[in-house]
Amino acid sequence: MKVTKKRTRIAPIFKSVTKQGIGASPGTPIYIGDREPVDATYSLIQYNDTTISVATPESIEEIILMQDPNMINWININGFANEVDYKRLCGFLKLDSLTAEDIINTKHRPKMEDFGHYLMVIAKMITAKENEGQAFEQISFILTENAVVTFQERPGDCFNPIRQRLKANGKLRKLGTDYLLYALLDVIVDNYFSVLEVLSVRLEAVEDASVSAKESKSFMRGMQNIKTDLNHLRRIMWPVRDTVSELIHAETPLVGETIAPYLRDLHENVIQVIEVLDNYRETAAGIQDVFLSSVSTRMNEIMKVLTIISTIFIPLSFVTGIYGMNFINMPELSSIWGYPAAMGSMALIAGGLIFFFKHKNWL
Amino acid sequence: MKVTKKRTRIAPIFKSVTKQGIGASPGTPIYIGDREPVDATYSLIQYNDTTISVATPESIEEIILMQDPNMINWININGFANEVDYKRLCGFLKLDSLTAEDIINTKHRPKMEDFGHYLMVIAKMITAKENEGQAFEQISFILTENAVVTFQERPGDCFNPIRQRLKANGKLRKLGTDYLLYALLDVIVDNYFSVLEVLSVRLEAVEDASVSAKESKSFMRGMQNIKTDLNHLRRIMWPVRDTVSELIHAETPLVGETIAPYLRDLHENVIQVIEVLDNYRETAAGIQDVFLSSVSTRMNEIMKVLTIISTIFIPLSFVTGIYGMNFINMPELSSIWGYPAAMGSMALIAGGLIFFFKHKNWL
Amino acid sequence: MKVTKKRTRIAPIFKSVTKQGIGASPGTPIYIGDREPVDATYSLIQYNDTTISVATPESIEEIILMQDPNMINWININGFANEVDYKRLCGFLKLDSLTAEDIINTKHRPKMEDFGHYLMVIAKMITAKENEGQAFEQISFILTENAVVTFQERPGDCFNPIRQRLKANGKLRKLGTDYLLYALLDVIVDNYFSVLEVLSVRLEAVEDASVSAKESKSFMRGMQNIKTDLNHLRRIMWPVRDTVSELIHAETPLVGETIAPYLRDLHENVIQVIEVLDNYRETAAGIQDVFLSSVSTRMNEIMKVLTIISTIFIPLSFVTGIYGMNFINMPELSSIWGYPAAMGSMALIAGGLIFFFKHKNWL
Amino acid sequence: MKVTKKRTRIAPIFKSVTKQGIGASPGTPIYIGDREPVDATYSLIQYNDTTISVATPESIEEIILMQDPNMINWININGFANEVDYKRLCGFLKLDSLTAEDIINTKHRPKMEDFGHYLMVIAKMITAKENEGQAFEQISFILTENAVVTFQERPGDCFNPIRQRLKANGKLRKLGTDYLLYALLDVIVDNYFSVLEVLSVRLEAVEDASVSAKESKSFMRGMQNIKTDLNHLRRIMWPVRDTVSELIHAETPLVGETIAPYLRDLHENVIQVIEVLDNYRETAAGIQDVFLSSVSTRMNEIMKVLTIISTIFIPLSFVTGIYGMNFINMPELSSIWGYPAAMGSMALIAGGLIFFFKHKNWL
Amino acid sequence: MKVTKKRTRIAPIFKSVTKQGIGASPGTPIYIGDREPVDATYSLIQYNDTTISVATPESIEEIILMQDPNMINWININGFANEVDYKRLCGFLKLDSLTAEDIINTKHRPKMEDFGHYLMVIAKMITAKENEGQAFEQISFILTENAVVTFQERPGDCFNPIRQRLKANGKLRKLGTDYLLYALLDVIVDNYFSVLEVLSVRLEAVEDASVSAKESKSFMRGMQNIKTDLNHLRRIMWPVRDTVSELIHAETPLVGETIAPYLRDLHENVIQVIEVLDNYRETAAGIQDVFLSSVSTRMNEIMKVLTIISTIFIPLSFVTGIYGMNFINMPELSSIWGYPAAMGSMALIAGGLIFFFKHKNWL
Fold this sequence. Notes:
With 363 residues, the first copy, chain A, is an alpha+beta fold. Chain A has helices at 17-20, 60-66, 83-93, 97-104, 160-167, 171-174, 177-212, 216-249, 260-323, 331-334, 338-359; strands spanning 41-47, 52-55, 72-78, 111-114, 119-129, 133-143, 147-152.
C-alpha cells in the first residue's frame, strides 16, 4: 500500500504574520497572501441614466484624471503591484491608512466599516473546483458618493452579468452607487450557491464511493476534506452575514433608504447559504455514520463466516485425530464398517453444527 | 449482496441558483422549484357576514373584475404558469417586485414582511408519505384590507375545513381578512401534527425492525432518512415560529387587536411541533444507541461461542496427535487400556474446560 | 432468545391532532388526552378567616348557587364529561373560549395567561411508578378575585395536605386566593421531588444491574427508558419554570405583593428540580459509560484467554504432527528416548510460551 | 472476580423532600440535611477600631444580652439543635420566616437575598478528602448594620485566619460589617482553590494509574468519580458566582461603596475557580481518551501476535498432516531424504510467512 | 515496552493558593508564579516629538527622580524581587493595593481596570517552543497621563520593534501614552500569530506521524498535548478579547478618540487568532478521526487476512486427517491414485475457497 502524503489543509485563509514582520507600524500597507502578486490592471466604467463609457486605463493617474463627479464611476483594480500607484490612489480617495492596509491584506475577515466620507466592505469571492477544493479571493469595496472601487487579488471575476446589465440600461443605471455596491455583493452571494452545488456533487460522489468502499481511509480523507471546506465556508459566511446586516443598519447618507429591501433580500440569501451549509454538515455526518456502520457490519460478517467454517472443521479434525491414533486395541479400526461409520458420524456432526448455527440465526 | 443505490437526500428544500442565472436583476420573477410548473387554476370566495359566493374564474382578468371591496375576497391560485397574468395580478395588488420574486421562488424560507398596504407571509405545507418521506409545498399569502391571496405550487391543499367553515357561517364569516389568514395558517400548522404522527409511525417501524435487525445497513439508512426528515422539518419550523411571532408583534392596521390571542395560540402550537421534533430526535438517537449496542452484543455472543468451541477441541486434538505419533517406544499404545484411557482423559479435559468456562461465567 | 417487544415510549405527552380534527374552529372545547374521560365529580371548599365549609356538590348548577363572594371559594373539578355543564361553568366564570379549549386539551404545555378578570395557569401533576415510568396529569387553575378553580383529569390528587392546612386554620386561611394558588402549585412542585426520588432509585437499580450485567440489551433499554423519562420531565420543568417566573412578574391585582417572596421560593424549587434532572442525566451518562467499558473489557478478557489457549496448543499439535508422519527415515521414531524427548520438548515449548505471555503481561 | 458494590454517588447535594413532608406550610423551619443535627454551640466576637472581645456564650439569650450596637458583632452558630432558641434568635434579628427556613435547609443553592434591614447570603464550604471525594457544608450569613451572623452545620470551619486578623487589628477592624462578610466569603473561595489542588492530585493519580492500567473498569470508575465531583463543584460555583455578582450590584446601604473593588476581586476569583474546573474537565476527558485508545491498542496488539502465531503453524501442521496420511503410494515417504526435505520445506514456509508479515509491517 | 511517564499538563496557568496562604488580607502583594523570582532590572525610555533618551536606572528611586512630566515615560520592569522598592513605586504611581496585588500575581487572567487616574491592563506574552509546548509570561501595564509602566516576570520580551520605531521617530513619537500602550499590545498580539505558526507546524508533524503510525499511544499523547495547548490559548484569548473590547469602550480621558480605530484593528486581530484556534481544533479533531479510522482499518485488514489463511488450511488439514486414520478398510489408501487424488482434491478445495473469498470480495 503506497501512502500518498496528502495533508489536511490547515487554515489557509488567515493572516500569516511571518510575511508582515511582527511589530510593523499599523497602517503599513504590506501585501499578505498566498498568491504571487500580479501586475495591476484597471478598468473604469462611468455611467448615468443616459450614457455609459467603458475604459481600461493604464495607470492610476489616468483613472484619477478621468473621474467625472456627475457620473457614477466604477473603478475595478486587479492585483496590487505598484506601491507608489497604490498610495496615490489611496490619497486621491482620502482613504485612512488602516483601510489601505486592510485592502492589501488579502487574509482579512469580511467586514464593513464606515469612515464618514466612504464605506469599506471586505468580501470573499469563492471558486469551487470539483477536485481541488475551494479557492478564496478577497474583494474589497470602497463606496463613496459617486464612485465604487473594487480591489481584486487578480484578474477574473464573476461581475460580467453586472457589466451586461449596466450596458443594457436597466434599474442599475438609474440608481446610485449604493445600488451598484448591492448588485456586486448580490452577484458574489449568488455565486456562493454554485459553490454549494459543487459541494453537493462532491457529497454525492463521496456517498457513492461509500457504497463500494473498500478503502476506508480514502473515504475518511475525502470526507474530512469536505468537512474542512464546509467549515471554511461557514467561517466566511458568518462575517459576511454580519457585514450585510451592518450595511442595512448603517447610519450613513452613502446607503440610501431605497436599497434597504434589496439588502434585506441579500441578507436572507446569505442566511440561506448558511442553512444549506448546516444541512450539508449534517448530511456529511450522516453519510459517515452509515459508512462506518457498514464497514463494521461487513467486517463482522466476514469474521463470522470465517469463524463458523473453522468451528465446523475443528471437531471433525478431532474425530480424524482419534482414528489416527496408533493404539493396538481400537476395535473400530479393524471393523469393515469402521471407516464409513466414522465418515458418517463426521457428516452428522457437521450437519448438526450447521443446523445449530442456522437455528441460532448465525448463518 | 446487491447494493441498491439509495442516496441520502441532500438539501432538497433550498434555492437552486442554476435555474435562476447568477446576477439576474433582483425582482425578476423566475420560477424556482423542483416541480414542473402547472397551468394556473383559480378560485375566488367572496363573503361577508350575510352572504357568500364561490367562483372558479378562468383568468386573472376575471378575478380582478369580480373584486368587491365590501366583501372579503379569498383568491386562491394554484400554479404559476402564465407570466403575463402573474404580472397583471401583481400590478393589481400593487405588489413590490421583490414580493413578486419571492412568491414565485418556491424554495424560500418562511417569513413575514410588512409592505404597508399589504403583508406577505410565506409558509410551507408539508405532506408526509409513510414510505417516501416528505413533500414540501410553498404557500404564500398576501393580506390586504379586504383580500387574502394564497399562492400554491399546484392544486390540492389542506384548506377544505376552512371552506366548509366559511359556508357554515361561523365566527370566520364575522371577522376580517386577518382572521382568515390566521385560520389558514392554523390549518397548515395543525397539518404538521399529522406529519408528526406519520413520523412517529416510521420511528416505531424502525424500532420494530431494529429488534430482528440482521441488516444493520438498512437500519442505519432508514434511521438516517428519519433524521434527515426531522432536520428538514426543524429547519422549516424555526422560521415558521419567527414568522408567527412577527405577525403577533406586527405594528400594522392590517392585523387587528382581536386576533392577537389566536395568533398566540398558533405560536404555542408551533412551539409544540418543535418540541415534539426535538423529542423525536432524542428518541431516534436512543433507538439507534440500543440497536448498535444490541448488534455489537449479538456479534460478541456469536464470536464467544465459536471461540469456546474451538478452544475445547484444540487440546483434545493435541491428545489425539500424541497418540498418532509413530514412536516405537510408546507403552500406552500397546496397552489394552490405552485407547479407553486416552478417550477418558480427553473427556476429562473437555469436561474440565467446560466447567472452567461455566465457572468463569463465560458460557 | 425470546424477543419481548417493548417499545421506547414516543412522545406520550403532546397534543394528538387526530382526535381533534384538523381545521376545527379555535376555541372549540374538545377533550384531548390518552385517558377515557370520566364522569366529572366536584368539591367545593369555602373559607375565610373564621369559618370553613366543605361540600361535594352534584352539579355545576349547585356550585354556582353556593358561591359566596365574601368567602374564598376553591372549586375542584375531576374529569370533563358533560359538555353542557362545562360550558355553563365557563359562562359563569366568564372564561375566554381559548381558555375553555386549553383546559380541556390535556396535552397542553404548562403556561400562565392573564385575561384581566382572571388568570389561567396550566401545570402538570406527575406520578412516578417504580416499574412503569411516569404518569402525567394536567391540572389547570383559574384564579379570580374570590375563587380558585382547579380542573383535574380524574379523581385523586396531591392536595390533601392543603385541605388539612385549611381545616387547621393557619396562614392559608388568612390570605387570599393568590396564596391558595401558590400553596397548590407548591404542593405540585414538592411532589416533583418525590418523582426525583423514584428516579434516583431506578438509577441505582440500573447501576446495580450493570455490575452483573450479562444482558447488555436489557441494560441499554432500561437506561434508555430512564433517559426518556428524564427528557420528558425536563420538557415539563422548563415551561413550569417560565410559568412561575411569569406569575412573579405578572402585573395584575389578582396576585398581590405579599406572596412575591413565596413565588420566588417556588421558583427556586423548580430550578432545583431542573438541576437535579441535569445531574441525573450526567449520572446516567456516566453509568452507561462505565457499563459499556466494562462489557467491552470483559469480552476482550474472554477472547484473550481463549486465544492464548489456542496459541499454546497449536505449536504442540504441530510437533505431534511431525512425529505422526510416515517417513521411513525418521531416526527419532526408532530411538527409545524419542517419545519422552518429544513429550519433554512439547512441555518446554508450552512452558516457554506461557513464560513469554506472562512476561509480556498478557496473562 | 469479586464485585465491590461502589455506587456512583447520585446528587448528594440537594433537597430531600421526604424528610420535610410534602405540602408543609412554607416558612416552617425544618432541618434538612444528611448529617445528624448536633447541639448548637455559639461564639461571639465583638470589635471596633480600638477594642475586641471574644466570648463563647452558652445560649441565644446570652448572645442577645451581650449585643452592643456600638461595636461590630460577629455571631457564629454551629449546628441547629434547639428549635425554641432558633426561633428566639430569628425573632431578635427580625428574620423573615422564609429566611429562617432557608438557613435550616442545608441543601439550598447558594444565593443572596436583600430583605431591606438585612441581607441573607447562602454559601457552601467544601472540604476535599483525597480518597473520599468532597464534603459540602452549607454556611448562611445574615448581614445587618452592626452584626454578621454565620450559621454552620457543625463545628469546624476555615475562618481561623479571619479570627487572627481580627485580633491583629488590621484593616478588618477599621471597616464595617460588609467588609467582614467579604472577608469571610473570601476565605471560603480561597478554600476552593485547595479543593482544586486535591482534585489535580487525584487527576494525576488517575493518569498514573492509566499507564499501567490492566483494570479498565476501576479506571473508568475512578474517572467517573472525578467527573461527578467536578460536576458537583461546577453546580455550586455557578450560583456562587451569581451570588457575588448580585452582592456587587445590590442597591442596599448595608453594602458600602468602599468594598466594591474587593467584591470584584472575589468575583474574579470565583471565575478563576470555574475556569480551572472547565480545564480539569477537559483534562479528564483527554486522559480518558488516551486511556481508552491505549487499552484498545494493547488488546489489538495481543490479538495480532496470537493470530500470527496460529497462522504460521496452521500451514505447517497441514504439511505434517500430508505425510501422516497412510496412502501406499507416497514415494516421498520411502525416500531417505523425504523427512529432511519435509522439515526443510516447512522451515521455508514458516520463514516465508514471517518474511511476508514483516514485509507487510504486521510484525 | 518502556513506559515513559509523561503527564498531561494540568492547568499550569492559574493561581496556586498554597503559596499565598488562605485568608491573607486582600491587597497583600505576594508573588505568585511558577518561576523563581529574579532580581528586578529596569529600563526607562523618555521621549516626545523631538527628543528621546534611553536609560537603565539601577533602582526605583532613580526612576522616580528621572520622571519628566513633559515627556512620555515608558518604565519597563523585569522581575519583582525587592518588596520595599515595589511598594515605593506603587506609592509613587498611587496604585490601589488591589492593583499592586494583581500585578505581582502572575497567574491572573487578562483584564483591564479603570482606576480614574490610571488604567491597569494585564496581558500574557506567549512563547511557543516546537517541542516543549508553550511558556506564558504575564505582562501588566499601568497607563497614566504621561507614563506607561510595564511589569514583566523576567528579562526578555518582544518589544524590540517598538524600541526601534521609537528611535526612528515615526507616528509613535507624535502620539500619547495611549498609543504607546496600543503599540505594545499590538506587538503582543502579533506575537500570537507566530505561536499559531508553531502550532500549525506541530499539527502537520502529528499528521505526518499519523500516516506511518504504528504507535497509536504516542500519537494520542501528542494529539492530546496539542489539544491542551489549544485550550490554554483559547482560555487566554477570550479574556484578551474582552480586555481590548473594554479598552475601546473605556470612558476615560486616558484613552483618546484618535486611537479608537487602532484598538478596533487590534480587536479584529484577536478575533482572528481565536478563529484560527477554532480552526486548529477542528483540524486536530479531523486528523484524529482519520488516524483512528486508519488504525482500525489496518487492524481489521490484518485480522481478515490471517483468518482467511487459517480458514483455507483448516479444511485441508481435515482431509489429511481423514487419510491419516488407521481403518483397515479404506480402499482409497491402497489405490495407486489415492495420494494424487487426495492432493488434487485438496488443491480443488483450496482453489474453491479462494475463488469464493474473491467472489465475496473478501480478499
